[in-house]
Structures are given as C-alpha cells and as structure tokens.
C-alpha cells in the first residue's frame, strides 16, 4: 500500500490505498518509516487518487492507532532528514496525515484540495509535534481555527496563509516537485543539508 521509487538521490513515496482515501494503517506508517532508513537527497511524498490521505484508518484508530507514537516518529524522522522534503499533495489532507506534510520543507497542492484536522470533534489530541509546526507556518490563531474550531481550509486560503507553498494542476504536480529538487540532486553531497541547517 506504499509505493517506493528510488531514482539516484530521489525517493518518491506514494500512498497507494485510493479506494480508502489513502487512510493510513499502522503497517503503512511502518513502511514509510522503513523507507527512510537510507536518507535520499530529495524526498517526495504523494498519493494515488483524488485524496492525499484521510488520516488514520478508522478501525485501527478506534483500536489505538489514533494515539500511537508512530505518527510522531514518522513526522520527526521527515523533519530531521538531511534532504529536501516535498509533500506533493494530490488532494485533500486530513487528520494525523497532516503531520508528515507539516514536517516537509515544501508543500504543493492541487486546486480543490482541503486541509482539516478534526481532533476536537473526534475527542483526540493532535500528534505532539504537529501544533508547533502548524503554528510556525500559519500562526497561533489560525492553528486554533484548524485544531479547535474544526475549520476546513481550501487550497487558495492555505496558500495565502502559508500552509502550502504552491498550487499546481494535478497533471503537473510530480513534474513540479521533481523540478524543485533538481538543484539539490545536482549538488555535491552535503551541500543541501548544510544550507538546510543554516535556515534552521
């Protein structure tokens, strides 16, 4: 349910459960973590179908996945990679799946994508690292709109807020993500990670 494609220093990880809106199971999260054991120069996260991810698989969420530390393990792993990390969001992003996108350096989204994190309504806390990353991008009031008021943010508003960096038509999404990683792939080893450390 996870597609793994390596091409030189590029790693593309694709959520492949479109019939379930790419809802994430524990096995999928484990596979994503395992795929990052050998850090690439450029990581692209994307999904199949019209939804990037609806968050946790509902049955597994009820059985404990909603509060499993693996969500933070994955997002923290992405955040600390010495790589350029790009979330190429092929559609709506919801719930705990937002953590991996927030942990990326860049976020692209298709027109019509929506962003929401319904932890208040569902009675869960967000994953521990997610609120601070959300605040760093959009500020505390807007983070409360999403996490406490249950706001669903459309792509255009998400771009204006800084939650995403570009809106890209679906047919150009991966091409654009690859183009953004081209300079990193062409650089000498370690150069990109040195710049990333300087940015903080």
Account of the 3D structure:
It is a single chain. By secondary structure, the protein is of the alpha/beta class. The chain has one domain (2-199): Alpha-Beta Complex (2-enoyl-CoA Hydratase, Chain A, domain 1), CATH 3.90.226. It is 40% helix and 20% strand. The strands form two sheets. It has a six-stranded mixed sheet with strand order 1-2-3-5-7-10, sandwiched between helices. A four-stranded mixed sheet has the order 4-6-8-9. A hairpin with a 2-residue loop joins β1 (2-7) and β2 (10-15). α1 (26-35) runs parallel beside α3 (70-79) and α6 (130-138) crosses α7 (140-147). The longest helix is centred in the last third of the chain and has 14 residues, at 173-186.
The CATH class assignment is Alpha Beta
> Which structural class should the secondary elements be placed in?
alpha/beta
Biggest sheet record: 6 strands, mixed
Stretches with pLDDT under 50, minimum 5 residues: none
Number of strands: 10
Label the overall shape: globular
SSE topology sketch:
Elements: E1 2-7, E2 10-15, H1 26-35, E3 42-47, E4 51-53, H2 58-62, H3 70-79, E5 84-89, E6 92-94, H4 98-102, E7 106-109, E8 114-116, H5 119-122, H6 130-138, H7 140-147, E9 153-154, H8 155-161, E10 166-167, H9 173-186, H10 191-199
Parallel strand pairs: 2-3, 3-5, 4-6, 5-7, 6-8, 7-10
Antiparallel strand pairs: 1-2, 8-9
Helix pairs in contact: 1-3, 6-7
Give a quick precis of the structure.
With 200 residues, the protein is of the alpha/beta class.
């Amino acid at each position: 349910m996870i597609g793994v494609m390596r091409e030189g220093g590029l790693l593309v990880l694709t959520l492949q459960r479109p019939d379930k809106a790419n809802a994430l199971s524990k096995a999928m999260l484990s596979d994503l973590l395992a795929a990052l054991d050998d850090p690439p120069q450029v990581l692209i996260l994307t999904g199949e179908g019209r939804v990037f991810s609806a968050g946790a698989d509902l049955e597994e969420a009820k059985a404990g996945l909603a509060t499993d530390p693996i969500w933070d393990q994955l997002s923290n792993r992405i955040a600390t990679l010495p790589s350029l990390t790009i979330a190429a969001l092929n559609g709506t992003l919801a719930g705990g799946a937002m953590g991996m996108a927030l942990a990326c350096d860049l976020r692209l989204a298709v027109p019509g994508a929506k962003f929401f994190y319904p932890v208040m309504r569902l009675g869960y806390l967000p994953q521990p690292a997610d609120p601070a990353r959300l605040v760093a991008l959009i500020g505390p009031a807007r983070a409360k709109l999403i996490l406490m008021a249950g706001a669903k943010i459309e792509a255009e508003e998400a771009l204006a807020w800084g939650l995403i960096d570009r809106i890209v038509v679906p047919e150009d999404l991966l091409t654009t993500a690859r183009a953004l990683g081209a300079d990193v792939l062409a650089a000498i080893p370690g150069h990109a990670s040195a710049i990333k450390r300087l940015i903080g």
